Amino acid sequence: MEPFKIHILGCGSALPTLRHNATCQIVEVRGKLFMIDCGEGTQIQIRRSRIHFSKVQAVFISHLHGDHCFGLMGMLSTFGMTGRTNPLHVYAPKEFEQYFNLSMELFCKGLEYEVFFHCVETTENKVIYEDKSITIESVPLEHRIPCCGFLFREKPTAPHIKRDMIDFYKIPVSQINNIKAGADWTTDDGEIIPNTRLTIPAEKPRSYAYCSDTRYMKNLHKMVKGVNVLYHESTYADDFKDRAKLYYHSTASEAATVALKAEVGKLLLGHYSARYNDEKQLLKEAKEIFVNSFLTNEEMFFNVE
């Protein structure tokens, strides 16, 4: 099975600390690298993660608070200094486009690679990226400004051929695609060989949902139902539930409630408030509702499985 990993580059919130970097993740799926959010200092975190600059092919910005996007222009400039030639695609709220174009003109003139900007409508749940192996959807969230999450889904793959059975029944190469598509095989003697004897079922497609800054949404679980891994912001513990509500953030227990209702495989917590010296309280409160909860931290990675 090809890797599907979440690399944590930053999991802090808006106020900088010496413990955590601003929000950023890299999703590695089927040999492709996608960045989600790009807080200050992201290019340094990429170096620490030992990910090659040129392999990041797209950046997805959830919203226009600085701890999620202030690192973008610096990173694009750094990419240019390393001799990057591969094009880069930026997906961000439509409100960002004018500022982005101006910043590119001021700070990133003369790049030797192309940067393409794609407007995202944060109020819509729709596919915004697709290739032969995955889709990426926008997931509307409720924050103080337009904001959305992102849902990565693998596309189903064909069953695996049992080479020894193909050879045994002398099935011609021209029929392999038909068998992968579910066809049985009929021998010269008229014996029908069922497809299940000729193939091994494909792995079940995996999925990852990233829910950036948002207040608790009672229906969010419907959009992320059954994903293998869910990242949901957990800025506060229950002792600051009123503050979470005021600033359109979530508590760890609220994130866990979404995970429980959505029947996900694993919950990742992040976007921690600077007021906590450690996040044990957040993890404890999440686990009381959803046992398979985990704290994120810089330079960690999580497998989607």
Automatic annotation (TrEMBL):
Its cofactor is Zn(2+). Binds 2 Zn(2+) ions. GO terms for molecular function: 3'-tRNA processing endoribonuclease activity; zinc ion binding. Keywords: Endonuclease, Hydrolase, Metal-binding, Nuclease, tRNA processing, Zinc. Zn(2+) 2 binds at D67, H68, D213, H271. Homodimer. Zinc phosphodiesterase, which displays some tRNA 3'-processing endonuclease activity. Probably involved in tRNA maturation, by removing a 3'-trailer from precursor tRNA. PANTHER family: ZINC PHOSPHODIESTERASE ELAC PROTEIN 1. This is Ribonuclease Z. It comes from Prevotella disiens DNF00882. The lineage of its organism: Bacteria, Pseudomonadati, Bacteroidota, Bacteroidia, Bacteroidales.
